Amino acid sequence: TNAQLLALNLDLGANLLEGSISASLLGNIGTNVVDLSLDLSLNGLTGSVPDALLQPFTTNGAAQCNSLHLNLSRCGLVGSIPKFIRGSVAKVGVFVDNNRLTGTINDIFTTTSTAAADKLSLVLSAANNTLDGVLAIPAMATSYPVALNVSTNKLTGLTVDATAGYLTSLDVSGNTDMTGSIPSVWFKSGSQLLNL
Length: 196
Description:
Elements: E1 6-11, E2 18-20, E3 33-39, E4 44-46, E5 58-59, E6 62-63, E7 67-71, E8 78-79, E9 91-95, E10 100-103, E11 121-125, E12 130-137, E13 146-149, E14 154-160, E15 167-171, E16 179-180, H1 184-189, E17 193-195
Parallel strand pairs: 1-3, 2-4, 3-7, 7-9, 8-10, 9-11, 10-12, 11-13, 12-14, 13-15, 14-16, 15-17
Antiparallel strand pairs: 5-6
């Protein structure tokens, strides 16, 4: 039988939830959810975001979920940007602002999704954390829209490939030790929103 495909919007934001996020948090929801929105923002969560959080939505690495909107802002989380952010889900919006996340974010520009490029997109907002290192924005064989806010972190450098026109929005303001340059072609195309 064909299972009915579902959109799930679970808003648990601004509650008094405490403790760590379990990797099995979404395990009983079922794999017939194709659009998932989960808001856990403004809670007293601790620890890191488990990389296996979205495992229930994949089968043998293939996406069962078309879109993901995940809000974990203002939770006190530590660790790195979760690896699932560019896994097999095609359209991803992850908001992890105002936590204590560390490390680099350069691996977000690769994806294992088999969806066509015009079905892919990524929005990552990770402002006000302690992300560090050089932000390297590469050229990609499969270009899809990427909007990135990493303002007010501890990033020290920026390198941008001149052909990285897929980046539709970039905010790196407030990284006081950042050096680097933006390709002049970006200023001619008019398709990017930059906040430096």
